[in-house]
Amino acid sequence: MITKPKGCYDIVDKEAVKFKIMNRVIEYFCEFYNYDYIRTPIFESRDLFHRTVGSDTDIVTKETYDFKDRSDRELTLRPEGTAGVVRSFIENKMYGTGLPKKFYYNGTMYRYERPGNGRNREFTQFGVEILGSNDPMTDAEVISMPYRLFEELGFKDLNVKINNLGAKSDRENYKNALKEYLKPYIDDLCEDCKVRFETNPLRILDCKVDGDSEILKNVPSILDYQSEESEKRFKKVLEYLTYLDVDYEVDDKIVRGLDYYDYTVFEIVSNAEVLGGASTIAAGGRYNDLVEKLGGPSTPCMGFASGLERLSLAMEEMNMQEKRPLDAYILYVNEEEKLKALMLAQDLRVSGVSADYDTTGRSLKSQFKEADRNKARMLILLNSEDLQKGLITVKDNITKEETKIDENEIIDYMVSNI
Ligand code: ATP
Ligand code: MG
Known about the structure:
- By secondary structure, this protein is an alpha+beta fold.
- The protein is built from 15 helices and 16 strands.
- The strands form three sheets. The chain has an eight-stranded mixed β-sheet with strand order 1-5-6-11-10-9-7-8, with helices on both faces. It has a five-stranded mixed β-sheet with strand order 13-12-14-15-16, with helices on both faces. Strands 2-4-3 form a three-stranded antiparallel β-sheet.
- Bound molecules: adenosine-5'-triphosphate (ATP) and magnesium ion.
- Adenosine-5'-triphosphate binds near residues 113, 120, 257 and 283.
- Adenosine-5'-triphosphate (ATP) binds near residues 118 and 125.
């Protein structure tokens, strides 16, 4: 038997229903907030991720799926969505007109990680990117939109953790102070952090091993190393969040696992029990230097990403409807009624009424059972005698009331009664 690759999952049954609901809410929200859908390739040149995510980040050093195609091109399955969007923005010269550009994406990502606990090798992320605005209002929108979206999905007790990484020069000053502080403890750090100490000391704050250690509890705060301009900007972001009624908490240890962030970074944390207490369900930040770094004109940007599998886990706790109820189930016995069922179902569906009928030769009794299994709101009972008089019987499955409707009025009747 051939089985699925390790860390990959089939999304079926209840899980598929949850994904459908999430996808609908995501599309609805993003379109309402005026984001345009963007789809970029699932694989890109390996170089793109080295230059965006960063060569010495966990993602690039340990987690990417790298391969060569038949012409020896070095390619990588995308581990995240921002790099592709930024590449596309530059390649298609979108910076020329109509800034800011507001995009949302929703697709599979690939990371070679140890599977388990909501951590997969193939997983799905949706996210947004706003390219071409440095207004703190943009930061507030990119944080509040997913916050409201998660509320719509049923999440309660959400909390935003937010930090300010400042400009590159602010971070340079901080890195020096951090290294100064960590120097005496270097032998006590994990092997990875010993390397990070030289290559990218900020990353140590994000370490899964050392993150909770006493040493890191007392590190200097990055917030004490911000320029006046950066501090003012951050205050504005927080002020807007307060106006938008977003529950936030400043956390100076948040740095995020990607290299391209500056100024605002944030995580949205859910306290859903099934996630094992506080768990990050979305994360993002500002990346004002990335477009330029990849060869485009200087363009300030801000975005976030959220993993659907983790959202789905938490949705288990919430009262999910397992299957969308059907508006109408059409029941028939003979050939004449069957033809009517076929045509009527099409007319109903085109008019926005979901409808279905039996295609396996079931008895009338089991057709009733099928209707129940599909949670049909209305039953349409076809019989030749009625049809000859131009009538169709409709049974309301909630009130159990039966009504005979003129054949020509059945669509209008269904549309206004579901
Ligand atoms: P973590 O610290 O949990 O490894 P990360 O910093 O790698 O997270 P991001 O790259 O910011 O995470 O991705 C944002 C979101 O994508 C996460 O909050 C999570 O929901 C989801 N995600 C990341 N990696 C995986 C994975 N391997 N499987 C499933 N979901 C994932
Ligand atoms: Mg990770």
